[in-house]
Amino acid sequence: TAFATGNAQTGLSGWYLSMYLHKEQHGRLGFYGYDLQDQCGASNVFSIRNDEGLPTELRGANYPNYAMN
């Protein structure tokens, strides 16, 4: 992806997306109740988490839920 687009950030996002999809088979409660998105990936890759909140609540992939309190 990075080679095709000439953008390293796009390639990094694609790599971590493939890692999320590959490791999702372990279940969503495999990391002490936190999502896999909170445990691995680049902190500067932003994503919309469709299972919680609104799409306007954008935050990084590594931003833990307990930091919101």
From TrEMBL:
Methyl-coenzyme M reductase alpha subunit C-terminal domain boundaries: 1-29
Any single Pfam family the record assigns to this protein: MCR_alpha
GO molecular function, one term: coenzyme-B sulfoethylthiotransferase activity
Domain of life of the organism encoding this protein: Archaea
InterPro entries according to UniProt: Me_CoM_Rdtase_asu/bsu_C, Me_CoM_Rdtase_asu_C
BP term (GO), one: methanogenesis
Signal peptide boundaries: none
Protein name: Methyl-CoM reductase alpha subunit
